[in-house]
Amino acid sequence: MSENSGTRATLLVSCPDRTGLVAALASLLSDHGANILRAQQHRESLNSMFFQRIEFDCAGLDISREELESLLGIECGRYDMEWKISYGDQPKRVAIFVSKFEHCLSDLLLRLRIGELNCRVPVIISNHPELKSIADANGIRFEVFPITKENKQDQEQREIELLNSLEIDLVVLARYMQILSPTLIGAFSNRIINIHHSFLPAFVGAKPYHQAYERGVKLIGATAHFATTDLDEGPIIAQDVEACSHRDSAKDLVRKGRDVERVVLARAVRAFMDDRILVNGRRSVVFE
Amino acid sequence: MSENSGTRATLLVSCPDRTGLVAALASLLSDHGANILRAQQHRESLNSMFFQRIEFDCAGLDISREELESLLGIECGRYDMEWKISYGDQPKRVAIFVSKFEHCLSDLLLRLRIGELNCRVPVIISNHPELKSIADANGIRFEVFPITKENKQDQEQREIELLNSLEIDLVVLARYMQILSPTLIGAFSNRIINIHHSFLPAFVGAKPYHQAYERGVKLIGATAHFATTDLDEGPIIAQDVEACSHRDSAKDLVRKGRDVERVVLARAVRAFMDDRILVNGRRSVVFE
Amino acid sequence: MSENSGTRATLLVSCPDRTGLVAALASLLSDHGANILRAQQHRESLNSMFFQRIEFDCAGLDISREELESLLGIECGRYDMEWKISYGDQPKRVAIFVSKFEHCLSDLLLRLRIGELNCRVPVIISNHPELKSIADANGIRFEVFPITKENKQDQEQREIELLNSLEIDLVVLARYMQILSPTLIGAFSNRIINIHHSFLPAFVGAKPYHQAYERGVKLIGATAHFATTDLDEGPIIAQDVEACSHRDSAKDLVRKGRDVERVVLARAVRAFMDDRILVNGRRSVVFE
Amino acid sequence: MSENSGTRATLLVSCPDRTGLVAALASLLSDHGANILRAQQHRESLNSMFFQRIEFDCAGLDISREELESLLGIECGRYDMEWKISYGDQPKRVAIFVSKFEHCLSDLLLRLRIGELNCRVPVIISNHPELKSIADANGIRFEVFPITKENKQDQEQREIELLNSLEIDLVVLARYMQILSPTLIGAFSNRIINIHHSFLPAFVGAKPYHQAYERGVKLIGATAHFATTDLDEGPIIAQDVEACSHRDSAKDLVRKGRDVERVVLARAVRAFMDDRILVNGRRSVVFE
C-alpha cells in the first residue's frame, strides 16, 4: 500500500454518525475528478461515532490540493467531522527512541531500507550511546539524551524542541526504557507508538516476560499502542502472540518475545504510515 | 453480523472499475433514506474489476423494496454492474450434503442452534444412512440418495429437483465423499461450498492427510472453496492451518485436521450467509 | 495417542532433580520387558524439580501389573518421587458440569462419539435443566442440582457423593456458571478443569468479553486451567487466541470466543486423558 | 537453549527400534557422572525407526570426552545406532549464501549479534556483490562467486574448497537464487538449509508468491528444508503461514512473506545449532 503512492491521498474523518455521510464525501471527491481507490467505514455502536478512511487518486483532480482541502473543510464542518488529509508524495517523518536493545530498531531500519515503510527517519534518540553504530551504518543522525531524575524535565524539553525542529510526525518507542512525562506525551498526542512486551492488559509494568513465566502462561505476546499518561493503558493498535510451554525459561520467553515485538511494532508503524488508524477513546479503529 | 438483522439489506455489486461508482450507489441509497451501515470496496488490479458490498438499514426507506430494486436496476445498468440484493429478514436456505463423517455436520448444526448462522436448513442429503439420527435429533429432514456409477446421473437429477423444490440458496458439502457431476455443479454455480481437507493447492485429490504425513509437513490445513468442475480448483473462500510435528501419525493429522475443517467450513458458510463473498474468476473477494 | 491403547501404560513422576533419575526408571521398566514408546522429561530451573512421563507397552511384561507397581513404589521411594500409573485399557471417568451454554458440552460429546477422547462420561451435572435434551440424545445421565446461596453447601455435598459413587477421575467445568466452594475443589484437587473465556491473566472475573471489547484488544482468547480456591488463578493447561478488530462488537467477541473455548478446553481434557499434565505450583508441565 | 552451554553436550542417535534403547544410553551416561538434562525420543511407526536426543551436563563426567565417545561407539555399535555428539563449547560454523535480497541475511545477523544463535559465521558467499556492505558492517568475510552456465561447475568447486577450508558445519541458503548442483549438495548432505518462499508442497518452483496470488489463497507461507537434488523436495524442518486476503496484491504477498521467511529460516537454523534435527527419509524429526 505504501508503494507507488505518488498521486495517492488519504482522507481520515470521524464524527457522530448520521445518514448521508458516505455519500457526501464520495460525491465531493468524485465531482472533482478524484478516483476513490478504497473507502472504509466503521460505525462504533458503543458511542454512535462514525469513522471513515478514503484513499483516492489525485491524478485526475480538476482543482488544486489547497482548493480541495478548502472544500473538505466546508463539507466536514457541516457534519462536525474531524478530518485529516495526507499525500503519498509527502512521506511522514519518524523519530525512533531506543535504549540498549537493538532488535526493534534494526528491524524497522531493515524495513526502511527495503522499501516496506514509506517514511523518513531524520533522527534516532537514545538515553544511552550503545546503538550509535547501527544509526551510523544506516546514515541516520543519533542523539543521546541521558536521563536522570534530576535532568529529566530539561532533557525532554530539549527532545521536544528537536522533534519539532525536525517536523516529526510520529515518535516510535522501540523498547525505549524510560517513562515519558505528560509534557512529552501531550506534545505528541496519538503520535507516539510504544511496544509493550506482553499481551496487554496482562502483565502491565516491569519485567512482563518474568511475570508471564511465573504465571505459567502458554502464549506470550506483544502490544503496540499509543502512549498515554496512563502507563500501558493507551489505545491498542496491534497485538500478537507466540506459543510457549513449560520448556521455556524466562530467558526463552524474552527471546521468543523479541520476534513478536518486532512484527507487532512494524505492523503498527506501517498502519500509521498508511493513515489507517483512528482513535476512539480507549479503543482504536485500524483499517486493513 | 447475522444477528438483529431485521431491517438490514445487503447489496453486492461488481463491474469494470471507473470513476464515480462509490458515489453513485451511496447517493442513490441515502437519497431514499437508507442509512449505510458499512460499505466495502475492492479494486482488483489484475483485471481492473470493482467490487462493492453495501450494508444498509432499510428502516428509514421512503420507497418500497420493489421500487428500490427498480432504481438499483437502472443505476447499475448505467455502469454495467452485476448486482444482487439480500434482506436480513429473508434468511438463506441451505442444504447440507454429508456421507459418514459427522464432525462438520454436527458443528454446523450446533452453530445453527445457538444462533450463529442466520439461515434455514430444510434438508440434509446423504449417500449413506449413518447420520440420520443427528438430523432427527435436530428435527431436520434427512434424505438418502445412494450413489452408484450406474445411478449417479438419475440420483443427481432427483437431488436437483429436491433442492429446487425447497428453494435452496446454498449447498454445503460437509465432507460429502462423492464428486458432483458438472450438471449439479452448473445448476448451483458459485452456490456450492466444499471443504477440502488440505491447504490447497497442496495435496489435491484423495487422502490428503496421508499425503501430508508422508511429505512430512509441519502444518496441516483445510480449505473451503466453491465447487467447480475442476476438482479442488474452485475459488478459495477460507483456509486455516494447525501446527503438527514428527510425533503426529497420519491418524493424528486426521484428528487435528477435523478441528480446522470445522472452523474453516463454518467461516465460509457464515461469509455466504452475510453476503460477503464475490467471485472474480479463480479468486474470491471475501469482505470481513 | 488415545487410540489403540489396549496394552499401553503411562507413568508420571515428579521429584527433586538429581543424577540418575532417567536411567533408574528406564532400567527398571526395560529389565521387566516393558518397551518404552515415549519418554519425556522436564527439569524446572525455578525450583530444581524433575518431571517425567514414560509411555510404555505392557505386552511383553514378564511380571504382573501389581508386581510392577510394587517395584515402582520401592524405586520411586528411593528418589522421593511422587508417581502415578495409568493403563490404556482403563479409560478415565469424566463428569461434565454445565449451565445453559451448550457449545463446550456439545463439542466434547462430539469428540467422544467419534473416538477422539479415550474416556467415559457417566454423568452430566447442571444447575439448570436446559441442556437435558443433549444429554439424552447422547444417552448420558443428566442430574440437575439447582444452586442458591442457601443450599449451595448441601448441593455440593450431594454432588461430591455422586462424583465419588461414580468413581469420577476428572470434573470438567464446561462453562459452568457457578463458583465452586473450597470443599468441592479440595475433594478433586488438580482434577477439575475449568475453561475461562479470556486469555488469562487478562480479564479475570465476570464478563471478560465485554471487558476485552472496552479495552479494545486485537486478540481474544480462552484459557483452560485447573480450578483452585483462588478464582482464575489455577495452573494453566492450554490457551489460544483469535484475532479480532474494531469491527467486532462485544457480541461478535462472544461468538468468536466460543470457537477458541471449545478447542482449548478439548485440548486440556485430551491432555488429561493422555496423562500428559503434571502440576508444579502455579505452573503446569504439559507434555506433547 | 543455546545459552550458557559451556559444559553441555548433545547426543543424537537413530536406529531400528528395539527394547532397551532408552535404558542403555541413559545408564551409560549416568554411570559416568553425566547429568541428563533432557532426553527426547521418537519412534516412527512408518518404518519402526527410533530417534533420540540426549542433552547432558559434562561437568561431573569422571572420564574424558574421548573416553566417553569411545564407550558410546561401542554401545551404539551393539544396537546399530547411528550417532553424533556435539559440545556446547564448540559452536557450529555456518556459511550463509545470499543473492540480492537482504532480509533473511540481516535477520540472521541480528540474531547472531544479540546472542540468539550459538554459532560462528566465518563467511558470507554470494553470486552478486550487492550485500557486501552488510557483511562489512558485521565484520564478516564476503566472497563473490558470480555464476554463469559456463562457470557454474568450477565456481561451485571453489566454493566447496572454501567451505571445507573454513570447516563449515552448515550452509544456509538465505534466499540464494541459484540452484545448487548435485556435487555441492552431496558434499554437504543434510547440512544445507534452504528457505523456500511458499508453503511446500504448494507452489514449487519459481515465483511462488505470484502463483499464490493467482490461485487466490488465503494464507501464504514459507518452508525451511534441507536441500536435496530433488528441488523443493527435501525434508521439511519448519513452516509457517500468514493470513492474506483479496486486498493483497502479489507485491503485498512478497512483503508479508518476507516476515514468514525470516522467522521460519531462523527457527530451522536454531534447531540445527541445538542439534535437534534428525532426518528420516523424506521426513524430519525436529525435537523442541
In short:
With 288 residues, chain A is of the alpha/beta class. Helix content of chain A is 33%, strand content 30%.
Looking at the overall shape, the CATH architecture of the largest domain in chain A is 3-Layer(aba) Sandwich
User: How far is it from the N-terminal to the C-terminal residue of chain A, by CA?
Assistant: 10 Å
Overall morphology of chain A:
globular
Task: Describe the largest sheet of chain A.
Answer: 7 strands, mixed
| Most extensive contact | A-C, 34 and 34 residues
The unreliable regions of chain A are none
Order of helices and strands of chain A: EHEEHEEHEHEHEHEHEEHEE
Across the major sheet of chain A, the strand order is 7-6-5-8-9-10-11
* CATH class call of the largest domain in chain A: Alpha Beta
User: What's the β-strand tally of chain A?
Assistant: 13
The total domain count of chain A is 2
Mean pLDDT over all positions of chain A: 94
* Oligomerization status of the protein chains: homotetramer
The CATH superfamily title of the largest domain in chain A: Formyl transferase, N-terminal domain
